Amino acid sequence: MTGDFNICDNLWDPLFPHHSSISDDLLIIANLFNLELSNPTNQVPTRYSNNKHDSNSVINLMFLHNSSSKLDNYLIHTDWRLLSDHTPLSIVISIVEEHINSRKCSIIKDSEEELTFIKDLTTSNISDIASLNRAVNEFANTVENAWEKNSKVINITKHSKS
Q1: CA angle 94-96-102, nearest 5°?
Q2: Which partner from 11, 27, 83, 103 sits 20 to 30 angstroms from 141, CA to CA?
Q3: Residue 134: partners with Cβ closer than 8 Å, 6 or more residues away
Q4: 152 phi and psi, to 5 degrees?
Q5: Given a cut of 60, is residue 124 above it in pLDDT?
């Protein structure tokens, strides 16, 4: 989460003399989303005042996921602001190719295994609750056994069909 929060505070601007309860509220809200205030690699203002009587300030902030310590350094680009009074913030996030290999059991539609699987499923006569419970348990066991007998383990990769 990043942007112009329009809050001056000594928590993120060491040159600002005051602390605000609004800043505490912002940190609490960010924490509810598992985000915490990130630190810039270069501590410079993020807003440059056009008025000579106002000081420059740090009001553009970046919040990152709590467990992202490797990403805890963003850059403030004062030379990129051109005519704007705000400086852009950037962060480099490395994205590595990840191979996710999962496995599942499968029976190919209209195959001999599918026909055998369906044949292996049988039902019995149900006359009362006890026989219903027996039939349901027997059916569950029959389905599980038929599935284990006729399915095969396949690897799911990024190239697999959906």
Answers
A1: 145
A2: 103
A3: 124
A4: -130, 150
A5: no
* pLDDT range class, residue 29, cuts 50, 70, 90: very high
Is there a contact between 106 and 154 (Cβ–Cβ < 8 Å)? yes
The Cα-based distances of 113 to 106, 116, 118, 120, 123 in angstroms read: 10, 5, 9, 10, 19
Q: Tokens standing for 135?
A: 């039939």
Per-residue pLDDT, 55: 86
155 touches 103 (CB < 8 A): yes
Residues paired with residue 106 on neighbouring β-strands, in sequence order: 152
C-alpha 134/C-alpha 7 separation (Å) is 67
Total number of residues shown for the chain: 162
* Residue 156, C-beta contacts closer than 8 angstroms, at least 6 positions apart: 100, 101, 102, 103, 104
Say how many C-beta atoms besides its own lie within 10 A of residue 119's C-beta.
Answer: 10
Confirm if 67 and 35 have CB atoms less than 8 A apart.
no
Tens-digit pLDDT profile for residues 35-80: 989 888 888 889 888 888 888 888 889 998 877 666 667 888 988 9
Domain boundaries, given as residue ranges, for the chain? 2-90, 102-156
- 21 within 8 A of 31, measured Cβ to Cβ: no
